[in-house]
Amino acid sequence: MTKNIIIIVLILGFIGIVVLLDIPKVQSIFDLKNQIKEQQKALEGKQYIIGIVEKLRDTYENNKENLNKLEYIMPGEQEIPNLIVQLEAIAAKGGLILGEIGFRAEDKNVATNQDYKSLTVNINLVGDYAAFERFLSTIEENIRLMDVESINFIVQSETTSLFNFNVVFKVYYQ
Q: I need a surface site. Which of 2, 41, 102, 134 has the fewest CB within 10 A?
């Protein structure tokens, strides 16, 4: 019987020593498993975000042509040389002679909450009334945003039915 008690005590002592010596290792294994789970969750989150970014990139690529059109509608800068060329072409297409062109940028010191800026354009045109109507129609249909603010005209010659038109409008840019 003492033999059995000694064997039981030795077995319990061995188990106790093994458990006491291996508890830190067992705990570190559980810690590593928890870290692996956290890293897997982080990886899944990153993969989800990558999926969203890829969808956005695909949407951008599919709409690139439309986005490029937006640059024509409201360019990033004033682009005065391009605007002059556009106005000359529009006037010539309508049958008008383009005179003076004046530009006035908005006051940069004025604080606004707008996402855009405007440029006031003042042009003088010479031609008949039908040509001026075509000019206004083309301005209205032009891809670049232009808002006519005022129109003044005087008769240049009563015998030729020519008018001097003074048009003030705003163009917008970012």
A: 2
* Residue 89 sits in the same domain as residue 155: yes
Give counts: helices (H), strands (E), the chain.
4, 4
pTM above 0.85, yes or no: no
Q: What are the backbone dihedrals phi and psi of residue 128, each rounded to the nearest 5 degrees, phi first?
A: -90, 170
> At 109, is the pLDDT very low, low, confident or very high (cuts 50, 70, 90)?
very low
Rounded to 10 deg, the angle between the 129-141 and 80-94 helix axes is 140
The total of structural domains in the chain comes to 2
Cα–Cα distance measured from residue 123 to residue 170, given in angstroms and rounded to the nearest whole number: 11
The answer to whether 169 touches 149, Cβ cutoff 8 Å, is yes
39: containing domain: 2-62
- The Cα–Cα gap between 73 and 141 comes to 11
Number of neighbours of residue 62 by Cβ within 10 angstroms: 9
Residue whose tokens read 């109507």: 133
3-state secondary structure of 158: coil
Sequence-separated (6 or more) residues with CB below 8 Å from residue 42 = none
